[in-house]
Design brief:
This protein is of the alpha/beta class and about 140 residues long. It contains four helices and five strands; from the N terminus they run αβαβαβαββ. It has a five-stranded mixed sheet, with helices on both faces. A hairpin with a 4-residue loop joins β4 and β5. α1 packs across α2. The N and C termini lie far apart (about 55 Å). The relative contact order is 0.17.
Length: about 140
């Protein structure tokens, strides 16, 4: 009974992250503190293993585990954006408030535009992790370059 409840909970996580079957998902910033339930839910929903930073594919979703002290967030976001599909999404996953490595939401909000991304939403994605959804801004029909 518990396993069925967990399976439902984890599939909700993948849905919250917008992961659909067949999507290519890259994982950056993996370390021993990541939430394996989130990873498993994403792999189960996409039907594919998570790709690492060496992947050469066009990426639909990037799961970026990022903690305070992990380096420059702007540089990391620029690197994460490079292989992203036109309608791809970067999820910055950070420890929740009060946990080691917590990153202030304002830091993500400030780094995103510098990296050419826009923040669209936030979500709680596990007991210990919060996510910020970032996308590349769409060029409007009337905009000229």
């Amino acid at each position: 009974m518990v396993a069925a409840e967990d399976a439902g909970r984890t599939s909700d996580i993948a849905g919250k992250l917008g992961v659909e079957p067949g999507m290519v998902v890259q994982e950056l910033g993996y370390d021993s503190d990541v939430d394996d339930a989130i990873r498993a839910a994403v792999e189960e929903r996409s039907g594919e293993e998570l790709l690492d930073e060496d992947a050469q594919e066009v990426i639909d979703v990037v799961l970026l585990w990022f903690r305070e002290g992990d380096g420059d967030l702007v540089d990391t976001l620029v690197d994460a954006r490079t292989p992203l599909a036109d309608n791809g999404v970067v999820w910055v996953l950070t420890p929740k408030t009060g946990r080691d490595g917590h990153l202030e939401p304002s830091e993500i909000a400030e780094a995103a535009p510098t990296a050419g991304l826009s923040q669209t939403s936030n979500a709680s994605v596990g007991d210990d992790w919060a996510g910020a959804r970032l996308v590349a801004p769409k060029a409007g029909k009337g905009q000229k370059r």
